[in-house]
Design a protein that fits this description.
The chain is an alpha+beta fold. Helix content is 32%, strand content 22%. The chain has helices at residues 156-163, 169-186, 274-316, 325-362, 428-431, 435-456, 474-483, 493-517, 545-557, 582-587, 621-635; strands at 3-5, 10-12, 17-35, 47-48, 54-55, 58-59, 65-73, 83-89, 107-111, 117-122, 131-140, 143-153, 227-229, 232-234, 390-397, 406-411, 418-421, 462-467, 531-539, 563-569, 589-591, 596-600, 607-611. Strands 1, 2, 3, 4, 5, 6, 7, 8, 9, 10, 11 and 12 form a twelve-stranded mixed beta sheet that branches. Strands 18-19-20-17-21 form a five-stranded parallel beta sheet, sandwiched between helices. Strands 16-15-23-22 form a four-stranded antiparallel beta sheet. A hairpin with a 6-residue loop joins strand 22 and strand 23. It is globular and about 85 Å long.
């Protein structure tokens, strides 16, 4: 029976291998400290946090998220540890809540490995605090117990760590928040949840071993600000986002035979349209794969930790040196390890097979905006009448799921800019590619993304500008230039950079003022209210300090009024600016022109390998699609 704790109450733990699950209404930092008999944390090495997510017997999430799972093995803790304190903190940064009183009360549950709840605690009564000691696991007379704490700190993470005796607590807290900011920058942003949003799984066959938890259906959006202009309303929210709960998914496929998994169905998720159901289904597959692999990795880590402990005990026992007892103990430890890892692998293979079958029916059913360039749907492409829910910008995969690709979908209109990293990264693919070739591939990736955006918007609702200071991207830009789909010739030189940035900055200013004032007649009649995409090549070449400031302004203020950035750059080229540009890089979604494992999922923080979308070898699908877009623009067809 689950113990529902209140502040100060404790409960005996029936086992030492545990999970601590955290649910919050907005992203929080989850970590833990190890304390001695008096609760003192002896050093930074006794703190598990996103920058150092593992300590002996404890593993925490590597990024801020609304949901966390912390793995605890009390038997693996150092002998001098008598207390484990679970801490929560709000991440710092623009747009982040500054106090727990402004967010939903966090919920913490201590569970067994099978998910059975042992004790739960809801942290109510918080107000100005930005960090909180949620609960603690402590050892008393050889018995481990859990106590609900709920002690908040208005002084934040630094104040909480100082209270636990951490030397240089402010510096440690700053390093944690720095790691959190970096993690948020590389994390794929999931769709917000609705209270009743569930991942649909039809009963039949054995359940997946991972936690196929709820996915993220499209949320109810607030009513967007509108301002009437001579050309119609200015509204940069998606025109078809609903403010009520979506209907349930369509009827399932016929039941599977007993003992067999259910047959997957395309669109097997909630949503107002087939596109929205497919969008939610893909995000569900993404989450299911993340959690299935997390369960597998956790089981393997546990098996290895247990084998190491048993081998250490066998080697330290003098009796094991007599009559072959030590050899038998080692064989038994390895046999247990093999059995545990074998069961974990079987469960993972079952989950992977289910997801592969689902992917096989989902991919052919995808609309153009969600499909790869090789999908036959592009052969019947027509310029759309309205924008889709999202756009596919690449694929993601994990080493355990060889061959299983998850489409990376970003919501439209774009909510953050995109940075195509043209620098040399640590990936094998980047290391094997010459620097000049990397830069060319990066620009080709940006052009392909721009082509996809042009293809999924109505003909007169999306404009593309290009800044190419040195004219070095003439080759990759040829498909856009030759098709005549750019708003103007690529801008070159410092004067061209300044002109384009001034034009777009003025547009952002005017639209913002019109929306805030509700002055529909304030905008010049010739102002283009279509969404704008600015492609910048080889940043910061050709940029002076004023231009850099304008670019940062567009990155921060542009998306809310329909101006978006697609930047091709090597961060090493901006070292002269020091940390001034750090907020710029963090605000952009970083992708790469070759395979690279830099993106993180928002649930467990795996490092996913990203691969950009490329047209099949010899295919001219990109040029054909752009030709249709250009023809529609010339005729005014929508």
């Amino acid at each position: 029976m689950t113990a529902e704790l209140v502040r100060g109450q404790n409960h005996t733990l029936p086992q030492t291998r545990l999970e601590i699950r955290v649910s919050a209404g907005s992203p929080v930092v989850a970590g833990a400290t190890l304390g001695d008999e008096r609760g003192t944390v002896r050093g930074a090495e006794w703190i598990a946090h996103p920058a150092s997510h593992r300590v002996p017997g404890l593993e925490v999430s590597r990024q801020a998220a609304a949901d966390h799972r912390l793995a605890v093995d009390l038997d693996a803790l150092p002998g001098s540890v008598h207390r484990v304190t679970v801490l929560l903190a709000l991440p710092l940064g623009p747009g982040q809540p500054a106090r727990f009183g402004a967010v939903a009360a966090p919920f913490v549950a201590v569970t067994g490995l099978d998910g059975t709840e042992i004790a739960t605690f809801t942290l109510t009564g918080l107000d100005t605090e930005s960090a909180v000691s949620a609960l603690e696991l402590y050892r008393r007379q050889g018995v481990w117990k859990v106590r609900a704490v709920g002690q908040g700190y208005a002084a934040g993470l630094a104040g909480m760590l100082a209270d636990q005796g951490v030397a240089e607590a402010a510096e440690v807290a700053a390093s944690i928040q720095e790691a959190v900011a970096s993690g948020l920058a590389r994390s794929v942003t999931p769709p917000p949840r609705t209270p009743d949003g569930e991942r649909v799984r039809h009963p039949a066959g054995p359940p997946p071993s991972g936690d196929g938890g709820p996915t993220a259906p499209t949320p109810p959006d607030p009513a967007p600000a509108r301002t009437e202009t001579p050309g119609g309303p200015v509204n940069y929210a998606h025109p078809r986002r609903q403010t009520s709960a979506p209907p349930p998914p369509p009827p399932a496929a016929p039941p599977a035979a007993p003992g067999q998994p259910a047959q997957p169905v395309a669109g097997d998720a909630t949503g107002w349209s087939m596109d929205e159901r497919l969008y939610n289904q893909i995000w569900g597959m993404f989450e299911d794969l993340a959690r299935a692999v997390a369960a597998y990795r956790s089981a393997v880590d546990f098996a290895e930790s247990r084998m190491d402990q048993e081998l250490d005990r066998a080697l330290s026992d003098p009796r094991s040196r007599i009559g072959g007892a030590g050899d038998r103990a080692r064989e038994e430890a390895r046999a247990k390890h093999d059995e545990l890892t074998g069961r974990a692998r079987e469960a993972l293979e079952r989950d992977l097979a289910q997801l592969a079958a689902e992917s096989a029916v989902v991919e052919p059913a995808l609309p153009a905006a969600y499909a790869g360039w090789g999908n036959p749907v592009w052969h019947g492409y027509r310029v759309p009448m309205e924008i889709p829910m999202a756009l596919r910008i690449g694929d993601l995969h994990l080493p355990e799921g060889i061959g299983l690709r998850i489409p990376l979908l970003v919501r439209l209109p774009l909510e953050r800019g995109i940075w195509v990293d043209s620098g040399r990264t640590a990936s094998e693919a980047a290391a094997a590619t010459p620097g000049d070739r990397l830069r060319t591939l990066a620009m080709e990736t940006a052009v392909a993304l721009a082509a996809r955006l042009l293809a999924v918007y109505p003909a007169d609702e999306f404009s593309v500008y290009v800044i190419d200071p040195a004219g070095s991207a003439a080759g990759p830009l040829a498909p856009l230039v030759d098709a005549g789909v750019l708003a103007g010739p690529p801008a070159a030189g410092a004067e061209g950079v300044s002109s384009v940035l001034a034009h777009l900055t003025r547009r952002v200013d005017l639209v913002q003022m019109a929306i805030r004032a509700g002055a529909s007649d304030a905008l010049p009649p010739d102002l283009d209210t279509a969404e704008q995409l600015l492609i910048v090549n080889d940043f910061p070449h050709g940029f002076d300090d004023r231009s850099v400031t304008q670019l940062r302004y567009l990155v921060d203020e542009g998306p809310s009024v329909g101006v978006h950035l697609l930047m091709v750059a090597d961060r090493e080229d901006t070292r002269a600016y020091g940390p001034v540009l750090d907020p710029l890089w963090r605000s952009l979604l970083r992708i790469t022109p070759v395979a690279d494992d830099h993106l993180a999922d928002p649930w467990v923080g795996h490092a996913w390998t990203y691969e950009p979308l490329r047209a099949p070898q010899g295919s001219r699908v990109l040029e054909q699609v752009l030709a249709l877009v250009a023809a529609a623009r010339r005729t005014g067809y929508r």
